[in-house]
Task: inverse folding
């Protein structure tokens, strides 16, 4: 019997090469940071976005995907970066870095403004093909992650769970986390039925994620 939400399988050679070519040569470029819907670029290409708690390793993952160490910059203060950052990939895709959520020190007004912008973006971006929700493998899915997942459900945006920092786990710990993640995801109708297990530091799962992005239609 197959587990619900299995790990994504290794891609075939043709798909793997498509993903490699898309991200080869450090061709990713920062386009702009957006603080209001009026600033969004034209929706003239396929788009994917990355969401995750502050300190989940989102910047490291984006940099690993794009072969650009300094492309996405992590703030020293969680929650400080309140822009939706757009990057161009291979002149065919937008890669979108959403502000980290779950921070405790940001003013309430800032949090509310960010939440409004996020809702507007997710519900109004027709070219958005998939959201990748990053989950720290050391902690699993928390209540604040489920809030974002519920928002994606209500916005009818397909999201795929990506576990980060799996190299930090001891032997046997990953299976416990995967069990918790699968149980939580089963409640979310917009969840794509495959998990991606990654480590930006070790390069684990990076080729798989590149291939997923490159083969979306």
Result:
């Amino acid at each position: 019997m197959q587990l619900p939400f299995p790990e994504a399988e290794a891609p075939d050679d043709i798909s793997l090469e498509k993903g490699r070519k898309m991200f080869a040569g450090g061709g990713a470029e920062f386009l702009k940071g957006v603080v209001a819907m009026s600033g969004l670029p034209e929706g003239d290409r396929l788009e994917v976005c990355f969401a995750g708690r502050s300190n989940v390793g989102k910047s490291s993952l984006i940099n690993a995907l794009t072969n650009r160490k300094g492309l996405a910059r992590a703030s020293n203060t969680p929650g400080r970066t309140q822009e939706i950052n757009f990057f161009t990939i291979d002149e065919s895709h937008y890669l979108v870095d959403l502000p980290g959520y779950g921070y405790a020190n940001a003013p309430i007004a800032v949090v509310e403004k960010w939440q409004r912008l996020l809702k507007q973006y997710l519900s109004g971006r027709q070219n958005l093909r998939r959201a990748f929700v990053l989950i720290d493998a050391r902690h699993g899915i928390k209540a604040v992650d489920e809030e974002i997942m519920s928002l994606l459900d209500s916005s009818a945006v397909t999201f795929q769970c990506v576990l980060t920092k799996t190299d930090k786990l001891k032997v046997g710990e990953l299976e416990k986390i995967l069990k918790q993640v699968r149980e939580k995801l089963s409640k979310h109708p917009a969840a794509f039925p495959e998990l991606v297990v990654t480590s930006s530091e070790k390069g684990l799962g990076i080729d798989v994620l590149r291939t997923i992005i490159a083969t979306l239609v």
